[in-house]
C-alpha cells in the first residue's frame, strides 16, 4: 500500500513538472512574438484546454453557438436554424426571418387544412350542438320513462302479489284435492294401502277422471245458467 502511494506521488510530480515546462516554453514564445501571432494564440488555447473537449462542445458548455459556420447539411435546414436561433439568439448569426412562415408555407398549410378539415368551424360547432341536444333529449326521454314506470310500481307489486297468492292457492287446492282422492281410494279398499301399489294407482286415476268429468259438468251447467240469465234479461228488456 505504501509503495502504491509513492508511485502515485511520483506520477503527480512528473505531471506537474511537464506542465511547468510547457508554461515556461509558452512564456518564452509569447515574449519572442510581440505582435501576437495567431498560431501561437491557438496553440496556447489548445494547451490550456485540459478537458479534451472539441470546440463545438466547449461552446455548448459555455452557452454559445456551437458552430460559427455550417459544417453539415443539417445545419442548413430550417428546423435546425430555427432551433439554434431560439436558443442562442442573434449571437448565432442566423437571420430571425427564418422563424416566420413564408407565403408558400401559408398556402401549403391552408391547402392541407382544407383537405384534412373540410368542415368550417361554424359547421363543426353546429354539429356538436346538435349531438349534445340529441344526447340531452335521449336522457330526458329515459328519465320520463323511468318516472312513468315508478308510478306504476305499486300497481305492479300488487299484481305480482296477487299472482303469487293465486298460485299458492291453486297449489294448496291441488294438494288438498289429491289428498281427498287418496282418502277416497283408501275408503274404497277399506284399509290402508301403499300409494305405490298398482291397484291404488289405478283406482286413483279413475277417481281423478271422475273428478274431472264432474268439474266439466259443473262448468257446462254454469255456462248454460249464464246464457239463460242473459236470455231472460233480454226478453224482459224487450
Automatic annotation (TrEMBL):
One of its GO terms (cellular component) is mitochondrion. Keywords: Cell cycle, Coiled coil, Mitochondrion, Nucleus, Ribonucleoprotein, Ribosomal protein. PANTHER family: GROWTH ARREST AND DNA DAMAGE-INDUCIBLE PROTEINS-INTERACTING PROTEIN 1 GADD45GIP1, LARGE RIBOSOMAL SUBUNIT PROTEIN ML64. Acts as a negative regulator of G1 to S cell cycle phase progression by inhibiting cyclin-dependent kinases. Inhibitory effects are additive with GADD45 proteins but also occur in the absence of GADD45 proteins. Acts as a repressor of the orphan nuclear receptor NR4A1 by inhibiting AB domain-mediated transcriptional activity. May be involved in the hormone-mediated regulation of NR4A1 transcriptional activity. May play a role in mitochondrial protein synthesis. It comes from the Eukaryota. Residues 205-214, 224-238 have a biased composition (Basic and acidic residues). It is found in: Mitochondrion; Nucleus. Pfam families: CR6_interact. InterPro entries: Ribosomal_mL64, Ribosomal_mL64_sf. The keyword Ribonucleoprotein applies. This is Large ribosomal subunit protein mL64. Residues 205-238 are annotated as: Disordered. Belongs to the mitochondrion-specific ribosomal protein mL64 family.
Amino acid at each position: 500500500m505504501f509503495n502504491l502511494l509513492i508511485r502515485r506521488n511520483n506520477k503527480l510530480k512528473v505531471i506537474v513538472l511537464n506542465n511547468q515546462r510547457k508554461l515556461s516554453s509558452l512564456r518564452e514564445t509569447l515574449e519572442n512574438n510581440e505582435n501576437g501571432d495567431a498560431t501561437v494564440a491557438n496553440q496556447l488555447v489548445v494547451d490550456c484546454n485540459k478537458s479534451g473537449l472539441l470546440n463545438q462542445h466547449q461552446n455548448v458548455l459555455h452557452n454559445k453557438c456551437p458552430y460559427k459556420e455550417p459544417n453539415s447539411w443539417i445545419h442548413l435546414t430550417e428546423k435546425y436554424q430555427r432551433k439554434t436561433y431560439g436558443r442562442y439568439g442573434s449571437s448565432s448569426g442566423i437571420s430571425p426571418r427564418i422563424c416566420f412562415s413564408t407565403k408558400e408555407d401559408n398556402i401549403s398549410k391552408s391547402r392541407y387544412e382544407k383537405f384534412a378539415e373540410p368542415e368550417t368551424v361554424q359547421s363543426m360547432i353546429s354539429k356538436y350542438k346538435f349531438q349534445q341536444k340529441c344526447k340531452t333529449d335521449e336522457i330526458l326521454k329515459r328519465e320520463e320513462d323511468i318516472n312513468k314506470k315508478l308510478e306504476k310500481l305499486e300497481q305492479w307489486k300488487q299484481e305480482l302479489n296477487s299472482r303469487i297468492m293465486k298460485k299458492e292457492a291453486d297449489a294448496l287446492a291441488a294438494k288438498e284435492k289429491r289428498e281427498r282422492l287418496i282418502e277416497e281410494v283408501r275408503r274404497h279398499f277399506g284399509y290402508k294401502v301403499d300409494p305405490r301399489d298398482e291397484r291404488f294407482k289405478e283406482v286413483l286415476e279413475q277417481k281423478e277422471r271422475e273428478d274431472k268429468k264432474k268439474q266439466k259438468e259443473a262448468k257446462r251447467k254454469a255456462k248454460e245458467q249464464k246464457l239463460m240469465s242473459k236470455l231472460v234479461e233480454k226478453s224482459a228488456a224487450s
